[in-house]
Amino acid sequence: MLDDAKARALYEKTLLPLDKSISAFQVYLGLSVPALELGMRDYFLAVNSGYDHEDDFRRCLASDYDSCFVELVDHSRLDPGLAPAGKGTLLIMALDNYANWRGLSREAYSLKKEAAKQKLISRAERYLPGLQAHIEVAEAATPLTMQRYTGSPEGAIYGFAHSPEQSMVNRPAQETRIKGLVLAGAWTRPGAGVHSCFVSGWDAAEYAERILGR
Question: How far apart are CA 187 and CA 163, in angstroms?
Fold first, then answer.
């Protein structure tokens, strides 16, 4: 996007060496009943395979859908308008590695995607008995899906990886070397996650107001 070759070279030197974050595999379910009726007492449930978080992360990198960390989120509990009256939604999410999906044939990709979807649904049913009988819509998204629809390289859902050397003030600032260009989002300061992105947008807006003289 940059016409200035020097600025482009500088940003390439600065940004290209940075590590990208992990991606995710997600299952989106439309249910015939609210998830609350299946035992989803809150809008969010986190399931760890054990107390060793490093081991749990390795399972995610290996696409071990049988035992990796998963999250269940009932978004329609937060916003009832997301589902018709009397029905519900459920998201099942596992962190995943883009490299595990890259280069697959169309057939191999479809088979792996369906197998992963069914494994995660089966795991969710351990905590929400009767889940499968109430599924009306089921869609899945892989790291390649994340890349396709967000434009995020390798489907990185958290922008740059949150290693100590790439966290907080070590991430790109809202201010850039390009006049009028302001950055906001997971790739910038202070980092990824909904609340951090709120802060990033707030800081970007304040900076934009300053350069506009408001």
Answer: 13
CA 30/CA 121 separation, integer angstroms? 12
The residue extents of the domains of the chain are 5-18+158-211, 23-152
Helices (H), 65-213: 75-78, 106-127, 143-150, 194-211
Omega within 30 of 0 (cis) for the link into 190: yes
Using CB atoms within 10 Å of the CB of residue 107, give its burial: 0 to 12 exposed, 13 to 18 middle, 19+ buried.
exposed
pLDDT at residue 150 greater than cutoff 70: yes
Summarize pLDDT for 25-39 with one digit per residue, the tens: 999 999 999 999 999
Digit-coded pLDDT (tens) for 45-71: 999 888 998 998 899 989 899 999 999
23-152 CATH: 3.90.660
